[in-house]
User: Fold this.
Amino acid sequence: MKQFAVIGLGRFGMSVAQTLSKKGVQVLAIDMDEKKVKIASEFAARAIELDATDETALRDAGVPDVDVAVVGIGRNIASSILITLILKEFEIKTIIAKAFTSLQGKVLTKLGASRVIYPEREMGAKVTESLIKPGIFEHIKLSPTHTLVEVDVPKNFEEKTIGELAIRSKYRVQVVAIKRKVTKVDKNGKAGIGENILIAPMPDDGLIKGDRLVLLGQNEDIERVKKIK
Amino acid sequence: MKQFAVIGLGRFGMSVAQTLSKKGVQVLAIDMDEKKVKIASEFAARAIELDATDETALRDAGVPDVDVAVVGIGRNIASSILITLILKEFEIKTIIAKAFTSLQGKVLTKLGASRVIYPEREMGAKVTESLIKPGIFEHIKLSPTHTLVEVDVPKNFEEKTIGELAIRSKYRVQVVAIKRKVTKVDKNGKAGIGENILIAPMPDDGLIKGDRLVLLGQNEDIERVKKIK
Ligand SMILES: Nc1ncnc2c1ncn2[C@@H]1O[C@H](COP(=O)(O)OP(=O)(O)OP(=O)(O)O)[C@@H](O)[C@H]1O
Ligand SMILES: Nc1ncnc2c1ncn2[C@@H]1O[C@H](COP(=O)(O)OP(=O)(O)OP(=O)(O)O)[C@@H](O)[C@H]1O
Assistant:
């Protein structure tokens, strides 16, 4: 079982420590703010108050023995940089560090951080993707050349079968699954909207209005299919 | 073409405005800080300096005519709340608002924000997911009951074909694609590692060490396959 340490329990660090604990992972949570340590002690295996730029204090807390360390310190740029260097000298295999500015991120990478996270910037990009492609729910890059997307069934595809549409030969994309909205009744007899998913559909499976297709193909073929009305 | 406004160009707001502009979308970028407006004017269709709690100034800037407004103001809790209310009174269809605390988020939702974003918290959870499943590169919930994952090829599957392994009938999951590392030579003759992807493999396609499988199936079947050594 991998051991984790989270240093700096701001909004990002606390979220990491909570998510790890919820998944049953042992987490050592560290901050110099007593109030934050108290909150973390309610869910983390161990929560310790210390100044993480103090190498001896980190050693005494057992930080050198962890497999993964997450540094959730952003605005305190000096602390984030000094702590990342100490963790690297402890030879911790995976060091994830949050950064507040790009320059700070460059320093962290040069010091040996395995991955640098810019939470606001990355969320800004993700939220925007979801805003401009209302019909494309998930747009997942499986590799530099291939993408998996979910699209609303184009109008021209309604009331036709996969075989009739010859999607694979005509558009060079694979229909991996069909998602269809259905009315479901829960155990209290209340009706609601659920979703059935049909994996690897057969040629005689038909498409209806409101279906969603999960498609896999090369990037340019996927872009072409997305434009079909 | 949908019209967008981004109000508050902090790390999150600036990222939204930049991502939209890169995708060719017309963006009206607003902030009360002249320096931020100057940066945004280099990529946004329009960038205006104003205090967004001033309703008249927002009207003069044309904000009531947009389809989507993103409020990227977090720490200034009062501004974020007042501005969200003004946007709702303009009857803007989609209002996305960032929040710094959960209580602020609750107020924004009650005032009519279509979606509230907590960038640090949501990124904390996403990063953690990727940390605790090292073998699972992408774990995508396609629906409440079905998941798509990428897994390393289990040892027992190496040097065997898809047909011999009878993965679909034995494990009830569909092999959507195989990803294989290959040596690629770039135009300068330098060799590097690339990745080929084979969509919808045939029964006589074989698996080798280092391959990755993209699998689709019901959640419990996927969990079972993940445990195969
Ligand atoms: N030297 C240090 N040792 C231990 N904890 C520290 C140290 N420096 C900062 N911290 C803690 O790290 C946390 C986050 O720090 P900081 O304010 O720099 O980041 P932030 O980017 O504002 O965080 P977030 O946006 O995730 O809330 C705070 O709880 C702070 O107490
Ligand atoms: N009333 C207002 N009108 C226009 N702009 C505003 C107003 N209040 C704040 N801003 C701008 O919004 C931006 C972000 O504000 P704030 O500092 O509250 O959020 P933040 O959570 O720290 O942002 P981030 O973490 O994304 O950098 C700043 O650039 C600020 O100038």
In short: The pocket of adenosine-5'-triphosphate (ligand 1) is lined by residues A 8-13, 31-33, 36, 51-53, 72-76, 79, 100; B 120 (CB under 6 Å).
